[in-house]
Automatic annotation (TrEMBL):
Keywords assigned: Signal
Domain of life of the organism encoding this protein: Bacteria
Protein name as it appears in the record: General secretion pathway GspH domain-containing protein
Signal peptide: 1-23
Species annotation: uncultured Phycisphaerae bacterium
């Protein structure tokens, strides 16, 4: 084997090793993105499931904002960044968006708790309805017919698993009707 053949073999080997290195690097990056998206999806789904469960099983739902609450009571569909309701023990429960800290909060009688971090946007669209008693007496819109929740989250330093690209954004939405208003 001559020097020319040896140099050709060496350049082919170097090209193959370089291509393999690029392929392995791409696989590792894809794995990191996939892991980041999976963790983000899991956390967002837990937050959305908790909110929809509470809306489904509680009573006396209303927007968190007082102005929107008045519009809701007059029969208008409203969109707010918070939702208030009463649980089975008549404790006030609120979900609200803290835009400055990019957190979704749940406010209970025991305090304010963080439900999700890295929240880019959060909205609840509430459609009112009238109870049977309200219809009979000519009263106002006193029940929630449907709430549609939209939650957009992004990975942050505190929410990312291990090394992160930090560029993953995920939007989830869910629509829910309180059970006691369905019957």
């Amino acid at each position: 084997m001559g020097l020319v053949e040896l140099l050709i073999a060496l350049s082919i080997t170097a090209s193959l090793l370089t291509a393999t290195a690029f392929a392995v690097d791409a696989a590792f990056r894809a794995y990191a993105v996939n892991q980041e998206q999976a963790v983000l999806l899991s956390k967002a789904r837990v937050a959305l499931a908790l909110m929809t469960t509470h809306v489904r099983t509680t009573k006396l739902h209303a927007p968190d904002d007082a102005t929107l609450r008045a519009q809701f009571a007059s029969g208008q569909t409203v969109t707010d960044t918070g939702l208030a309701m009463y649980d089975a023990d008549d404790n006030l429960l609120r979900f609200r968006y803290d835009a400055a800290a990019k957190r979704l909060l749940v406010v209970t009688p025991t305090g304010t708790h963080t439900l999700a971090r890295g929240v880019e946007s959060f909205s609840v669209t509430m459609e009112p309805m009238r109870s049977a008693a309200s219809v009979r007496t000519g009263g106002g819109w006193d029940l929630l017919k449907r709430a549609t929740i939209q939650l957009t989250v992004r990975t942050t330093g505190s929410t990312a698993p291990g090394e992160s690209t930090g560029n993953q954004t995920l939007t989830l939405s869910g629509s829910v009707m309180p059970r006691r208003n369905a019957w």
